[in-house]
Amino acid sequence: MPSVNGKADVIFEDDDLPYEEEIIRNPYSVKCWMRYLEFKQNGPKTTLNMIYERALKELPGSYKLWYNYLRERRKQVKGKCITEPAFEEANNCHERALVFMHKMPRIWLDYCQFLVSQCKITRSRRTFDRALRALPVTQHPRIWPLYLRFGHNLPLPETAIRVYRRYLKLSPENAEEYIEYLRSVGRLDEAAVRLAAIVNDENFVSKEGKSNYQLWHELCDLISQNPDKVTSLNVGAIIRGGLTRFTDQLGKLWCSLADYYIRSGHFEKARDVYEEAILTVVTVRDFTQVFDSYAQFEESMIAAKMETNSEMGQDEEDDIDLELRLARFEQLIARRPLLLNSVLLRQNPHNVHEWHKRVKLYEDPTADY
């Protein structure tokens, strides 16, 4: 078999002679090398790799040659065990390519995906970071989706959280995606802080089409239902701030504030919130919502006390605390007509019909006020 330039390590067949002669005449022609590579495509992989190496030695700045060579090296290791040396050889080829192709996002993306498929977590993360440093900021949107997906698939959320924080500096409009991820991994405190930030940002436009009130309502639900996990925010101040901003949704906000205190174990504070709410709301809808929630709260307190007495074997008839809770609940139910009348009068203090009704309510001898 003939050899090139007398070197025994570069051996070719007789059929290769036309291509070798063409390359000798035009060593810097990408087309000549590509024709030769296409001809040897079904030949031994070592021979194909050798021709690629020869071509890249002459044309190290050819994107077409590097792209096809790297794709061929990845194809050669597909289906093999990731611990085989062939994977590291392919990785080294990518590193050599990036010396010349560091401004080509496609090379970075393919290399990052290749490393992720090998489960090389630290090396993948560092390569993503190198890609972001090497590429201009206008091409970063091509890297971030893959980087974020890589972070999502990691067993520990810390890496993804740090990646998201950097990502939001470039694309703050995607804060909702980050908040959803934080909620999915149980990082509710930071989720609440981020949600509060976008609620207070007048320029923020939801990508999911949510209004500012919907975002606010999500925030209220999050902080009221998880008082033990959300510690960085003043929950009471936030919800009371909402009471002044969203006057058409007072019932839900009052119930959220009371729910926060109930879940925190501050039952007397919750009762104070309910009392304040039913004495300040100005619509029947809000009153009904708050009153029903208040009554349900009192019923649950009675049920909890009765269950405790049953477990401890105490006589319910001698339990003063239980009697007090029952009396409080009965008084709440009895006060409902007068409280509802007060709501209607707050709407229109000049409603004579409601004033007459109020007089009759006070004259009712069965009422206990």
From TrEMBL:
Keywords associated with the record: mRNA processing, mRNA splicing, Nucleus, Repeat, Spliceosome
UniProt record, GO biological process: generation of catalytic spliceosome for first transesterification step
Q: What is its main location?
A: nucleus
- Does this entry carry the keyword Nucleus? yes
Is Repeat found in the keyword set?
yes
SUPFAM superfamilies membership: TPR-like (SSF48452)
What GO CC annotations are associated with the protein?
Answer: post-mRNA release spliceosomal complex; Prp19 complex; U2-type catalytic step 2 spliceosome
Q: What Gene3D superfamilies does its record include?
A: 1.25.40.430, Tetratricopeptide repeat domain
Q: Which residues form the Pre-mRNA-splicing factor SYF1 central HAT repeats domain?
A: 176-365
UniProt-annotated location(s): Nucleus
What are the residue boundaries of the Pre-mRNA-splicing factor Syf1-like N-terminal HAT-repeats domain, all occurrences included? 15-173
Q: Which InterPro entries match?
A: HAT, HAT_Syf1-like_N, HAT_Syf1_central, Syf1-like, TPR-like_helical_dom_sf
Against Pfam families, the record matches this protein to:
HAT_Syf1_CNRKL1_N (PF23233), HAT_Syf1_M (PF23220)
For this protein, the record's SMART domains field holds: HAT
On the tree of life, the source organism's domain of life is Eukaryota
Family the entry assigns: Belongs to the crooked-neck family.
Show the PANTHER family listed in the entry.
PRE-MRNA SPLICING FACTOR, PRE-MRNA-SPLICING FACTOR SYF1
Name of the protein described by the UniProt record: Suppressor of forked domain-containing protein
Organism annotation = Oryzias javanicus
